[in-house]
Amino acid sequence: MSTIEAYKQEIETELDRAREKLVELKEKIRSSSDVERLDSIDEIEALEKMASDMRAKIKELNEEMEDSWEQIKGDIDSSRNTINEAFARLNRSLV
After folding, report:
1. CB within 8 A of 40, min separation 6: which ones?
2. What is the pLDDT of residues 41-67, one digit of tens each?
3. Distance between CA atoms of 23 and 71, rounded to whole angstroms?
4. What is the pTM of this model?
5. CA-CA-CA-CA dihedral for 64, 21, 49, 1, to nearest 10
6. CB 62: neighbour CB atoms within 10 A?
7. Euclidean distance between CA atoms 39 and 25, whole angstroms
8. Do 4 and 61 meet the contact criterion of CB atoms below 8 Å apart?
9. In angstroms, how far is the first alpha carbon of the chain from the final one?
10. CA atoms within 13 A on the CB side of 35
11. CA 35/CA 40 separation, integer angstroms
């Protein structure tokens, strides 16, 4: 597994754990006082936003990698075609 893939997997695992913790916190604040609940809800919403932003960044990283892969694949295909054409020319000239 590449370093980038390992990093993304690590972040996704942490985000999954964070989502589980947020669910637990939401359950806990249901029994809290109104003031505590309001403060906690704001914090939970902020955490949910941060987690959502991180997921968006991971998706962006995936898309950028995919774009890079397409670029690299295109370059490789172009080189492969050039090599094949060169071999074909050589074969024709040697016959």
Report:
1. 25, 29, 32
2. 778 888 888 888 888 887 777 777 767
3. 41
4. 0.60
5. -10
6. 13
7. 12
8. yes
9. 47
10. 0
11. 9
